[in-house]
Amino acid sequence: MGTPEIVWSCIALVISIASFVVAAYFYQWVKKLPVANARMEEVGKLIRDGAFTFLKREYRILGIFSAVVVVLIVLFFPEPIWHGNAGKNIQMAIVYLFGTALSGLAGYVGISIATLSNVRSATAAQESIQKSFMAGFRGGAVMGMAVVGTSLAGAAIVYLISGDPEIVMAFSFGASSLALFAKAGGGIFTKTADIAADLTGKVELGIPEDDPRNPAVIADNVGDNVGDVAGMGADLFDSNVAAMAATIVIAAAIGQIDFMFAITSMGLLASIIGVFLSRLGPNGSPSRALNGGTYITCGIFAVLTLIVTLIAKFDIRLWVCAMLGMVAGVVIGITSDFFTGDDKKPVAKVAESCQNGPAFTILNGFSYGLLSCLPALIGIGLTALISYKLGEAIGPGYAMMGISTAAIGMLSIIGMIISNDAYGPIVDNARGVAEMAGLGDHVLEITDELDAAGNTAKAITKGFSIGAAGLTVISLLGAFLELVNQALTEAGQAAINAFDVMNPMVFFGILVGAAVPAVFSAMLMNGVNRNSQVMVKEIHRQFNSIPGLREGKTKPDYAKCIDISTRGAIRELIPAGLFAIIMTLAVGFIGGPEAIGGFLTGNIVTGLLLALLMSNAGGLWDNAKKFVESGNFGGKGSEAHKAAVIGDTVGDPFKDTAGPSINTQITVVSLVSSLAATLFVRFHLF
Amino acid sequence: MGTPEIVWSCIALVISIASFVVAAYFYQWVKKLPVANARMEEVGKLIRDGAFTFLKREYRILGIFSAVVVVLIVLFFPEPIWHGNAGKNIQMAIVYLFGTALSGLAGYVGISIATLSNVRSATAAQESIQKSFMAGFRGGAVMGMAVVGTSLAGAAIVYLISGDPEIVMAFSFGASSLALFAKAGGGIFTKTADIAADLTGKVELGIPEDDPRNPAVIADNVGDNVGDVAGMGADLFDSNVAAMAATIVIAAAIGQIDFMFAITSMGLLASIIGVFLSRLGPNGSPSRALNGGTYITCGIFAVLTLIVTLIAKFDIRLWVCAMLGMVAGVVIGITSDFFTGDDKKPVAKVAESCQNGPAFTILNGFSYGLLSCLPALIGIGLTALISYKLGEAIGPGYAMMGISTAAIGMLSIIGMIISNDAYGPIVDNARGVAEMAGLGDHVLEITDELDAAGNTAKAITKGFSIGAAGLTVISLLGAFLELVNQALTEAGQAAINAFDVMNPMVFFGILVGAAVPAVFSAMLMNGVNRNSQVMVKEIHRQFNSIPGLREGKTKPDYAKCIDISTRGAIRELIPAGLFAIIMTLAVGFIGGPEAIGGFLTGNIVTGLLLALLMSNAGGLWDNAKKFVESGNFGGKGSEAHKAAVIGDTVGDPFKDTAGPSINTQITVVSLVSSLAATLFVRFHLF
């Protein structure tokens, strides 16, 4: 390890610690805010307890899963223990556990703060929209700072201690495998409750959202926390670590690891500054405040990294790659905003088609979802192409470095992105508790406005996360080839120069890999389906058997619904992820590294397509429903509204369960391939 | 050209002529059957006139389109006329026109016979189910024989006259480009009418399907003919010609063109025999009769080709490849039957979920559609892999020949497949005219049973057509590489050995290519959306303004609805296909042949995925609706039924507009690439 690498790893550590300090400061700041009344305390506690109960049970399952993986790593990875170096296997297992632990911690911190901020943001809304915004945003920022700080510090520590890029991969696999299941579990939990609550409450009984008579209402609010806050945190933690791990593998060969840590550190620093600067002006719009924060952070990041590049004499072309990635993230975000924003044509068109019934709502939204794939895929493709060419011009080995630099560039300002993203479910929850604690219509108006801003910001942050996943997995493909060739050289075999589409083994891999995200999403959606049907039945049971519930004289049995969501999610969270991992191993052991090269390609391609389709169509239906609810085409209660609710219900698992989980699925599959590279080289059928 | 090639081309011609004789015989046989009554004559004439009116207007537009393409070919393809050999450009243009003309003819013949058979099949149902079945099946067989005969004869003639594989590509492009637009136009027409008729008739007014009071009912029946008969005929004509063209390009280098004609001739011969043997036994089930015919034809094909292989001393391994393709087609068909068959679990599950409302119907069906992609993609991948390896063992140049042989093997019995497929819309129409002519419930029961068998058979035939398209485009990718390398050699440049995924130009192409089928399907579905909304308004207008219509005392204005479908389809049929072609040219002129290699790969992968998803989910919803209608979960008129109808409506453009058009889209894009190979080599930006 050279001095610059050590210096920059240490700087990364220092800035990570600074981010923890900021997180702690915001945590205290939020915690000191007042809570409106006893009813709200009570509701807040119900949500908090529900979320932690789920988290505990989820982590118990994931603990068992991780223990099994640890044993497998010790026995087989990167090489069977009787073949290779037992010490390395053990090191990898430890680092894997470290990755899972940090990823779990990120989720835990997120839920802790989110379940404090929700009630405080609702209370602050009694005073002013500015205060309410700040409570929500700073709550989100705790998560943002904690996630990015831990991921950067984790990568720096693992690299400083081991000095071995392959070990960093194991750390990343720990983070990703946990993220995969946390995302899936949280996504199933939240949508089970959300769908069941909407279908029975809004559609059948005609009671408002978050009405305390609805037995699923607490479960729905718990879901926002475990799905959108904890799950999303784990997801972005995973993307960030994976991008760094891939870059470390690629950069090791050309001595550019210092550059990697320089860029990521400056990204975190820029996010810290950006988060501090973000606030809502006296007459400002919350959605402009959120997006403004993102743009300011981008600007700070550009300036900081330019200075660092000039001082440390990094190649300026690599800096350009990082900028390209950042700009591409913003552009992809803006295009997905076009397809999902409630002030744009697609939402208005879909809302209009609701008048002709739900079939048209579905068909129209689905078509726009398909259309939305084009700009994002071209954007990712162009960014990869240009950054590759820029890197190639620097020298041998730099081409893939260009792509992975674009990926870390796109993820650099992720501290800010997560803050914006976690803000969404917090203010959504604030709306829920305000309704249940009876804070009145004025408060609801404010929280509705804040919530809508969260949805708009989400479009942009989702663009970032899908784009970043795309670039990351392309660089992971490069990292995989690197590791395969190391293994081939060690085994005295010729290196692989290409994953040639005309090679039938590669093509076979492509087709199988292409099917995996489809099956994976189907399994998650079926999980939501099954569970929410169970919950709908339970809600019917409660309304039919608890006297006085309909009239609001008795309380429903909230715990029962939380329990259904929890059990369902726990049961369903493992199979889909396991399927993806097993398919990877099967293809690798059957067809060897070339089949895996194809498999990853197919997986990336349909994974990105389905993720974009599902996220954007889901967001579109959600906003089309809100568009109708705000009084268009007949407003609430009209036939158009019923159709819009059906569209939204279909979109729920699209955008909050399957869509965002696919990101993690493609990362995990790529990491499994890299870890098993040596095994695939040694043992394969054909 | 060697003697064996000439001999086998001539045998192909002779068998093609035999198939025309059979087609003519069946045509006369059907025409002589009686028609029940004057009312039926009248309804039949309305349908027939509507179909031919649409066909005329469609062909006028396609004529203009073809004229433009002819000019472009003369000027630019395969090389700019001022660069290369003007004679070849003109030859290509003529052959292109020949391809479009034959493809158009296939559609024309199909509509002629289908609009005769429908009324006769309905009339025959008064006597017995056997007679009704024979009228429908032999009507379909006219189409089957005509399509396969023309495609084989066309390819043989073009090859005999030109002796140049590249010219056969132009013939294939003619067939495919027409098929693309005919399929799109027919698909938009039929679903516009079908959706509008269902939504207003079944859902709003509660009148039965095919009720003569519904103004869209004739348009709906016209749609079956122009969409399912003519469009499907053009589609399979195109697949068959494309598979032959790709094989000819690949086989030319290794002198195996005689083998290609031998296999395809025997396939047609087997289909002729199979069609003659097919009939419905006294207590037989129509669906077993249809599938039984397919299996018998497969057996005859296997025996005939084995004999020919042994006598003509072809390599037995190539025969195995053909068998592999055939078996894969059947297996893929059986798996799609699992996902869409009304006696299987998925249909029952989706029907059950209808009880919980349309959102669950959609989510559940969509999930099964996603799951259904896995076995088919693995099947196509394995077939390609094994046949490549078998070919590779024969010698250099034979590897791709293995894959293309598997493709022609899968398509070999297409004569039988088309007969089964065209049977479906004919008996569907028979049901319609029986209802409108008031033939009574007994006849409706018979036609319902025949119709259900058509739907089941369709699952298997769709498996064949998607699988065959997959294998065909893989071999077209090989043909493209072949042509690129010829052009590179001529230009004195080094040949391309691989389309390497790690080459960013290839990867860029993959991502852009992946987006094309998504956008293409979205454009077609939006077309259906827009038009059916217009038609729904028109139907409302008629019911509100024509006195006595509701009570059945006056006739509705059928012509107005036919006109809306026609205008809409004519307006929408060009843009989607043109988009795909323009994207291909743009990527090629920007990134050169390597970008196109990636583009085709991405296009195939997501194309197959979306085609499978849409076809199977659509078929599943259709049968789930029928399952509910047959009395399950509350039966007709229940809430479950309403949800099932919404699912079916969403599925309509999935399975009959977008899904099947994607096949043709990927073929056309591959052919455009091959034709423009020389241009892409010469002129590209990067």
UniProtKB/TrEMBL annotation, chains A, B:
Catalytic activity, EC: 7.1.3.1
Cross-referenced HAMAP family:
PPase_energized_pump
Top-level division of the source organism's lineage: Bacteria
Q: What gene is it encoded by?
A: hppA
What's this protein's function?
Proton pump that utilizes the energy of pyrophosphate hydrolysis as the driving force for proton movement across the membrane. Generates a proton motive force.
Q: What is this protein called?
A: K(+)-insensitive pyrophosphate-energized proton pump
In chain numbering, where does the site feature Determinant of potassium independence fall? K458
Which proteins does it associate with, and in what oligomeric form? Homodimer.
Pfam families for this protein = H_PPase
Give the UniProt keywords, A-Z.
Cell membrane, Hydrogen ion transport, Hydrolase, Ion transport, Magnesium, Membrane, Translocase, Transmembrane, Transmembrane helix, Transport
InterPro entries, sorted:
PPase-energised_H-pump
GO CC, any one term: plasma membrane
| Recorded topology in the membrane | Multi-pass membrane protein
Q: Which residues cross the membrane?
A: 6-30, 61-78, 90-116, 137-161, 167-189, 259-280, 292-311, 318-339, 366-386, 398-418, 464-484, 505-525, 573-592, 599-621, 662-681
Q: What is its main location?
A: membrane
Gene Ontology MF: a single term: diphosphate hydrolysis-driven proton transmembrane transporter activity
Q: Which reaction does it catalyse?
A: diphosphate + H2O + H(+)(in) = 2 phosphate + 2 H(+)(out)
Cofactor(s) this protein cannot do without: Mg(2+)
Query: Per the similarity annotation, which family is this?
Result: Belongs to the H(+)-translocating pyrophosphatase (TC 3.A.10) family. K(+)-insensitive subfamily.
Localization (cell)? Cell membrane; Endomembrane system
**Class of the enzyme per the UniProt entry, highest EC level:** translocase
Query: Which NCBIfam families does this chain map to?
Result: PRK00733.3-5 (NF001960), V_PPase (TIGR01104)
